[in-house]
Amino acid sequence: MTNSTQHAIVADFVFDGSALHRNTAVVVEGPWINFVVPLSQLPQDLPLHKLPEGAWLAPAFLDVQVNGGGDVLFNNTPTPVGILTIANAHRKFGTTTFLPTFISDTPDQMRKAIEAVAALVDKEPSVLGIHLEGPFLSVEKAGVHDPRALRRPTDADRTMLAQSRKGVMVVTLAPEQVPEGFIRQLAANDIRICIGHTMATYQETRAAMAEGARGFTHLFNAMRPMATREGGPIAMALVTPDCWYGLIVDNVHVDPAMLRLALRGVGYPMLVTDAMPPVGGVRPNFALYGEEITVRGGRCARRDGRLAGSCLDMATAVRNCVKLLDVPLEHALPLAAGHPATFIGVGHWLGRLAPQFRADMVGLDPHDVRVLETWVAGQPS
Ligand SMILES: [Zn+2]
């Protein structure tokens, strides 16, 4: 049972993704978890690393919507170096895997972003793929996306998206901006479709889901609001069992009452940060499409006051779930790990602490949801 390359991380509380175990050890070999056992059954000759008293060890966070971090915006720096800076910035907040998220831009820039991610997918364990948020979005619900970059898909777009690629691809689109059959075509190519930045009706949303859309991007924000006789995408998200919807829990984007409602949906809520360069950075401002965005009072906003992503990190999102929404920590943690992992198709090896899962783990102080340590593919960082 013992092996010199194995080592154990021991914590007073190990949350495996669904249950909390006391005095438990996670035995790691290379990047993988070999087994999770009570401390009393641990082989005596294994090297041990013990978390501080009272700490929790949990699956590390997976964020499917990260625009930037460490003073870098992916759109402005669509390069492997830019992505690595963003990855490092988010790691100290417990996020060990993510999808760099590229917002609506020119086809050339989009291609660069896809290539930069492809160059890292097999080499850098934090980079699982790419999220293309746009450009097939509603002008009416553009938010801070440059309306000049929004378009209906062209033949060149179809070719670019159909090309073989490495890693996961998520595309956020407005169903009313794409022709019938387009979503089916992407879904058949193993692309995850999220509905967002949209004025789609309930019926249009239903049709998009029939073609294979399964996700919703930052539910409530930049989409048709739910009305008495037109539920739109929000009603569809909340009543559909096999769907996943992102929530920005920063106490700025969505009122806590609406978030509580969303957590009662029958599908799978996911915490996303929609993070911008100030997360893990030192500067209070950055440029988006050449325009200055400033952080004030926990908001990233344009001069006209329009929100431009967030300055939320994932540990704070989890903490807000607990403190603002009264969600028990063991219910909040899967929203930042297991749920997004299942959505993007990596739930069989990420998002749980169990044999044959990758050792992506976070050590937390459970009282203020403060990150103590993180491990990426078995490596402390
Ligand atoms: Zn957005």
Report on this structure.
With about 375 residues, the chain is an alpha/beta fold. The chain folds into 2 domains: about 5-60 and about 350-380, Urease, subunit C, domain 1, CATH 2.30.40; about 60-345, TIM Barrel (Alpha-Beta Barrel). Helices cover about 25% and strands about 30% of the residues. It is built from 10 helices and 21 strands. It has helices at about 80-90, 105-120, 155-160, 180-190, 200-210, 230-240, 255-260, 315-325, 330, 340-345, and strands at about 5-15, 20-30, 30-40, 50, 55-60, 60-65, 70, 70-75, 95-105, 130-135, 170-175, 190-195, 215, 245, 270, 285-290, 290-295, 300, 360-365, 370-375, 380. Strands 1, 2, 3, 4, 5, 19, 20 and 21 form an 8-stranded mixed beta sheet that branches. An 8-stranded parallel beta sheet has the order 6-9-10-11-12-13-14-15. Strand 14 (about 245), helix 7 and strand 15 form a beta-alpha-beta unit. The longest helix has 14 residues, at about 105-120. The protein is globular, with a radius of gyration of 20 Å. The mean pLDDT is about 95.
Strand content: 25-35%
Write the CATH homologous superfamily of the largest domain: Metal-dependent hydrolases
Small molecules bound in the structure, each named once? zinc ion
**Residue-averaged pLDDT:** 96
Overall tally of structural domains: 2
Task: Indicate the CATH class of the largest domain.
Answer: Alpha Beta
Share in helix: 10-25%
Going by CATH, the architecture of the largest domain would be: Alpha-Beta Barrel
Oligomeric state of this protein: single chain
How is the CATH topology of the largest domain named?
TIM Barrel
Number of strands: 21
Structural class: alpha/beta
Low-confidence stretches: none
Tell me the radius of gyration: 20 Å
